[in-house]
Each structure stands twice: as structure tokens, then as C-alpha cells.
Amino acid sequence: MSIESPLVRSRGLVKRYGDRVAVAGIDLDVARGEAVGILGPNGAGKSSTMRMIGCVTDVTEGELSVLGLDPRRDGPAIRERLGVCPQEDSLDMDLSARDNLVTYARYFGYPRSVARERADAQLEFMQLADRADSRMDQLSGGMRRRLAIARALVNDPELLMLDEPTSGLDPQARHLLWERLFRLRRRGVTLLLTTHYLDEAEQLCDRVVVIDEGRIVAEGPPAALVAEHAPREVVELRFDSDDLDAHADKLDQVGHRIEVLPDRILLYVDDGDAAVPAVYARGVSPTGVLVRRASLEDVFLKLTGRTLVEA
Predict the structure, then answer these.
(1) Where is the ABC transporter domain (predicted)?
(2) What is residue 82's three-state secondary structure?
(3) What pTM was computed for the model?
């Protein structure tokens, strides 16, 4: 029995812009039907990696195969089989929701009648059928984001690439979009996405890849990464003062590790309820205390020393 080749396979993938190395040797596989999230701070190499996979920019060094084809030689053939939703929606503001999809579908050579059928099917799937005739200025940000994803689906892509799919959306719009993407996963659509929202990666992805300074520093299922890199619980401490280092100095050896952030101190511990009395016993009196389970954000802090979203 043969093993199916991955839809995306890279080995030693490198991207340089002049003297700057954006991607410094990435090995990545994305299997058919898998949802993979690429995480990293600004400038880590996420977008450059996605642009090479999407055949938008050339590979500097290394091997890259997308849908079994070589982007250096087969870029147009690959792009015909991809669905791409960039961070900026780039929808035509002068067209209706339906006409945005029909126009895009026509680029793939579909007759107008087929393009309209595909457009209407995706509008229905994205719960936008009642807004088919609406112009862009009549749609909310969440609606426009769903429309951008609907546009990326009109050619029935084998791989759907999403760059920050819910950036800037309110919580209700984010959760609605998550539900639609979850349904795509259930249909077997392969997803490759970047996100600044770690809860989004936990909700949508079978596997996450953490990139820092152009290299993969960890990858695996979200729960497995948390179990591998973080203790069971985290105690968050908040204070009125700005001198958090002075408080942190008193908390040495309370738990496995201390992380001092601009607005709070994190204690990584096995038992949060037992750690809180130890904090007060050290003469530290926070104005706010929260005990929670460890998350992907804690893994990211440990691996990169930075929060995912940086000013």
C-alpha cells in the first residue's frame, strides 16, 4: 500500500531579500486533509514561507513541492489548484458580493453560468446568500472576511491558504468564521494558515508550526506542544506598580519558571492553588491573581521569549 505524498513538502527552504534572510532553512510537510497553523512574531518568516508556497515569490534555496509540482517550473498550474485568502481582503468595492465571486471564478476559465453557480454555492456555505446583491460598503468586516474566503473557494481548491483569517474581527465574527472553517475541515479541505491568535490555532489546527527568526523551533499538535513545553498551570500576577522585576526577584523558585511581561508576572507551576499562598508568604501582594491551565501562548513565550503580537 503506497503512502500518499504530502500536498506541501519543503526541505532546507530559504528565502533571502538582499542580505536579509527571511527564511533560514525550513522543513515542512502538509498532508492532504490536514489543518496546519504557522505561528511566529512579526518578521519571523511566516509570510515569506506562505508566499513561496503560494508561488508568489521565488525560492532562494532548498526544495519545495506543492501539489506534487515544482513552483519554479509549474507556478501557474499550482495557482490554479490553490485557494488563497490574503490578510487584506482586496475585494472590489464597486461590485456586489456575488459579482466579486463570479468575476474571480471567471479567471479560472469557468463559463459565466458555472461561475454563478459556484458563487451562489459559496455564498450559501458562508451564510451570505441574503447579502449576494450587497456592495462592499454595506457589509460588516466579518461579512467581508467570509466573502474573501468564499472567493478563495470558488475554484474548489485542493489547498486553502489563509493569512490571518480573523485579524481585526470582533469575537462574534471570529467564532462564526471558525465554525465555517471547521466545517471545511470536516469536508476534507486542506488548510494552511497563519495567525496571531493562539486560541485560533488551538481551535482550528491539527498541528502548529512555531517559526522564529526564519527557523522552525517547534511543531506538533497544540495539546502535545503544551504538554511538552509547559507545566500544567500558570499563575498570573498583576500589580499597581511598574517595577515588576522587584516583585519577581522575591518569587525565585516558586514553580518551574518566572516570566516577566510588561503588564504582569507569570509563574509556571504544577499546582496553581498551592503556589498562590507561597506568593504571599514571600511578601508579594499582587492586586490581581489568576490561576489557569497552560496554553500555546505559554509555549510560545518559552520558545521565543516574546509574545506573539508585538508593538
Answers:
(1) 8-238
(2) strand
(3) 0.85
3-class DSSP assignment, residue 101: helix
Q: What percent of the chain has pLDDT over 90?
A: 72
**Taking 50 as the threshold, does the pLDDT of residue 311 lie above it?**
no
Q: How far is CA 147 from CA 50, 95, 152, 169, 176, in A?
A: 21, 12, 9, 14, 13
* CATH code that applies to domain 231-294: 3.30.70
Compute the distance between CA of residue 167 and CA of residue 161 in angstroms, rounded to an integer. Answer: 15
Contact predicate 49/13, CB 8 Å:
yes
| Span 3-54, pLDDT tens digits | 578 999 999 999 999 999 999 999 999 999 999 999 988 888 999 999 999 9
Tens of pLDDT along 172-209?
888 888 898 888 888 888 999 998 888 889 888 999 99
The residue length of the chain stands at 311
Domain boundaries, the chain: 8-226, 231-294
- Letter string b/e over residues 113-141, b meaning 16 or more CB atoms within 10 A of that residue's CB: eebbebbebbbebbebeebbeebbeebee
Residue with cell string 466573502: 147
At 139 the pLDDT is 94
Assign a CATH topology to domain 8-226. Rossmann fold (3.40.50)
Place of cell 490555532: 201
Burial class (CB in 10 A: 0-12, 13-18, 19+), 44: buried
What is the rounded CA–CA span in Å between residue 97 and residue 293?
42
